[in-house]
Amino acid sequence: MISANTTFIQKRPDFAAIAAWVPKGATVLDLGCGNGSLLRYLTETRAVKGYGVEINDLDIVACINNGVNVIQNDLDSGLSDFESNSFDYVLLSQTLQATRHTEALIQEMLRVGREGIVSFPNFGYWKNRVNVLFGNMPVSRELPYQWYDTPNVHLCTLHDFEAFCGNHRVEILERRVMTGESEMKISPNLLGSTAVYRFQRAL
Asked: β-strands 87-93, 49-54: how paired?
């Protein structure tokens, strides 16, 4: 079982940022939930109720072993199995960059949930820029894959995501940008390696 301990949060500091925005007892849908570690963490720390959505067979088994309710589904096929406004929060943690139909998925998140929360690696982070400057695709803790085996198809910067939201009637409610466990408030698009956003449908 995965427990909500300090070592775990050091590996995924975005989990703590997400948990800070989710009130106790909220209903949550975690898209691309992997082994269920985020839902497990939210259950332990925030007493949430919810489901994960995952396509990988081994991760499905891991979710079950972690006591997480999971549904096997491909995010790129949409969320038609879920009724509108059926969750308080819909989460997409470190999965946004691996989705093919990003625009449709964000809109579906806001149909199914009252609010959405996403976290993703910031391609504008200075170390990534240096790698590209020297002619190489970045490889880091946040982007651990080589160019030829990466699942990431839509990498973006903070500026890119915020422009996307402005063009698609998505209202950003809060933002946290981090490198490790430290929050970057000065030049976040340059100094932050991971971004976390809370948003809703714009009125």
From this structure: unpaired
The residue type at 3: S
Task: Tell me the pTM.
Answer: 0.91
Domains and CATH numbers, the chain: 6-201 (3.40.50.150)
Query: Is residue 27 classed as helix, strand or coil in its secondary structure?
Result: strand
Tell me the pLDDT tens digit for each residue of 133-149: 999 988 888 888 888 88
Return the structure tokens found at 141. Answer: 């803790």
| Cα distance between residue 65 and residue 123, in whole Å | 33
Instruction: Quote the DSSP letter at residue 156.
Output: B
Cβ contacts of 63 within 8 Å, gap of 6 or more: 33, 35, 36, 39, 52, 54, 69, 70
- Give CA angle at 102 (90, 48), nearest 5°: 10
Residue 175, H or E segment: strand 170-179
Q: For residue 117, what are the β-bridge partners?
A: 91, 198
User: Which amino acid type is present at position 200?
Assistant: Q
C-alpha angle 16/22/25, rounded to 5°? 120
Residues belonging to the chain = 203
70-98 pLDDT tens trace: 999 999 888 988 999 999 999 999 989 98
